[in-house]
Write a structure and sequence with these properties.
Elements: H1 2-25, H2 30-56
Helix pairs in contact: 1-2
């Protein structure tokens, strides 16, 4: 399960990167795209921290192997 969630974290980071690229290409909506990109990246970070915290609470489970 944690591996699937961490895969989604990576997907969210990829979306954020793509939005950053689009922002550079479309100056008229640059600010909005950068705002959305930041929000997506922040969501990915929160999700990743949540997984790390929950894994730390599971006895005998090595978070590095998730």
């Amino acid at each position: 399960m944690p591996t699937a969630i961490l895969h989604e974290v990576q997907q969210l980071n990829n979306v954020s990167d793509h939005l950053d690229t689009l922002a550079e290409e479309h100056p008229l909506v640059e600010e909005a795209l950068l705002t959305i990109s930041g929000s997506v990246r922040n969501t990915a970070t929160v999700l990743e921290v949540l997984v790390a915290m929950k894994l730390a609470m599971v006895p005998g489970l090595d978070p590095a192997s998730a």
